[in-house]
Amino acid sequence: MKPKRMAAALIFTGIFIASNLYTMLPLQAQIAELYHLSDSQASLSSSMFIFPYAIGLFFFGMLADKLPHKKVLLTGMASLAVVTVLVGLMPTYWLFIVLRALQGILAASFAPTAFAYSFEHFHGKTQAFVIAMINTGFLIAGIFGQMIAVELARFGSYRSVFFGFFILYGICFLFMKQSLVPSKPKPFQTLFSLSPILSFFQFRPLQKLYGIAFFLLFTVMMFYGSFEWMIARGEIDIPFSLQSFRMIGLVGIIPAFFAGPLQQRFGAPFVLGFGLLTLTIGFSLPLLALHTWTLLIASILMIASTSITIPMVILLVGQFSQHSRASAVSIYSFTLLTGASIGSIAASLIPLPTILLTTAILFMGLAFISFRMGGGIKKSTLSK
């Protein structure tokens, strides 16, 4: 029963941590009106969380390799809860932005530490399942975070969102405190060292995995962003809202529930390669006939691809970096988010048909790289 409670605590917490990446998106117009801001100034309420979050992943990745994982998770969550309520109390917009940045840094304490904890306390298909479910929670948070923000804002203003998340983070803290077993004590070491980080970039298997990671959320953001621009320009009509389109796409998270058995039977490199090919197949359909239904199928298969490839990338990063897993995973997370940021910018610059064609070809090449990785896992691991 204890492993199930441990897994549930990490998955539950992961959803609410990732939700804060998206909570301000539906409220930016309200913030702009309230403080008399331009659209670009109001968008800082999101970007000033995301960029510090990405930077914080490096910091906490190194920290989690040196300190007990449970201690890092609980300290990070307690600090995040306190800062979250303070964000909602800030009297001016610019103080609000400063606290949002600090909130982003503290939120980054969860992901690399939770994955490192999973490598330490779960094994075999259970390990693959837990990692897949944490990542599935991150995918769900993309829509859930916006929905819960709108509902919490109904109680007052955008400030209600932060008071609500203060309560939720308090619940997450208690859930992890009661459910997680203590991590193994670690010998004292220098807390921050760049040598493991530099060694990762010199290690060819990790170079390939980070390259694949960059294009995963890059593609998701570019696909949805370009599709939204098509709708705004009147180039395509859909019989339902864009939010409904995205929610239907979440059907694609189903393969994540089978990540453990698939990884056990076929191996992570094969499952990763198959997941990448799934996106190639999905994007090929609207290239043959571009309309709502082929794009909807492409959306479902894209999410299916993402839901299975992300946990496989994390598993492989963990296998190739056995001595500094949290640091290695933090670089992966930073790379993933960097790809997402660039993808959202590229969406407004590149037509959707071009995105579909180039991405389908790209992912076919990435799948080939993944299949070739299979023979190298037992022969090559990164040592400190």
Automatic annotation (TrEMBL):
The chain crosses the membrane at residues 45-65, 72-91, 97-117, 129-150, 156-176, 209-232, 238-258, 270-289, 295-317, 329-349, 355-374. Gene3D superfamilies: MFS general substrate transporter like domains. InterPro entries: MFS, MFS_dom, MFS_trans_sf. It is found in: Cell membrane. Keywords: Cell membrane, Membrane, Transmembrane, Transmembrane helix, Transport. Residues 6-377 form the Major facilitator superfamily (MFS) profile domain. The keyword Transport applies. It is a multi-pass membrane protein. Belongs to the major facilitator superfamily. This is MFS transporter. It comes from Pontibacillus chungwhensis.
